[in-house]
Design brief:
Shape: rod-shaped
Order of helices and strands: HEEEHHH
Mean pLDDT: 79
Strand content: 5-15%
Low-confidence stretches: none
Helix content: 40-55%
Number of helices: 4
Length: 196
């Protein structure tokens, strides 16, 4: 990789204009040209652009003076346009994949939330049923005192049962977590279910 501040390629990247240099060794070009391949004389550098943004530069060189004519420039411009389209499409694909991953994560969080809520309600109902049954047993006529004590201990244990599930384990790499807002997705899904 070349820094954008150096060489003909850097100049093309900064300006967005192609450069076709017939002899890079002339005094006016010596300060701009960076010799990476020995014995090169001609250089053609064309920007890869998409929506007026420079994405990269295609650079070709030759050991011949004035090696790149109009046909070479047209061919490299076509290649640069195709490369710009391909890079733009790759960026769009990556953006879609990222969005899809966020939606999948939001969906998983939504289902975890549904599970937690459902689990909490079920546990609350189980606790109420147990406490009610324990109370009914305790109120039976002729209940021995030691059995009543056991039922009281059982009722206390039931009251200590948590209404929420145990915490989910912490992620292996918390620095890689992303915040995902699930409210808009939940609204979209609920609206879809209601409309269906």
């Amino acid at each position: 990789r070349l820094p954008i501040t150096e060489g003909v390629t850097g100049l093309v990247a900064r300006t967005g204009h192609l450069r076709n240099i017939g002899n890079v060794h002339t005094p006016d070009r010596q300060s701009t040209y960076l010799a990476y391949i020995p014995d090169m004389v001609s250089e053609l550098a064309v920007p890869i652009t998409q929506d007026d943004k420079v994405l990269g530069v295609i650079n070709i060189e030759s050991p011949q003076v004035d090696a790149f004519g109009e046909a070479s420039v047209k061919s490299l411009l076509k290649l640069a346009r195709q490369a710009g389209i391909a890079l733009h499409n790759a960026q769009q694909y990556n953006l879609l994949e990222h969005t899809r991953s966020q939606k999948e994560a939001a969906g998983a969080l939504a289902w975890m939330s549904v599970f937690v809520t459902d689990w909490s309600h079920q546990m609350a109902n189980v606790k109420l049923d147990l406490l009610s049954n324990i109370g009914n047993l305790r109120d039976l006529p002729g209940m021995p005192a030691d059995a009543a004590d056991i039922l009281d201990q059982l009722a206390n244990s039931v009251r200590e049962i948590r209404s929420v599930p145990p915490e989910f384990p912490a992620p292996a790499d918390p620095d890689r977590l992303e915040v995902v807002r699930i409210e808009p997705l939940l609204k979209e899904w609920v609206d879809h279910w209601v409309d269906s």
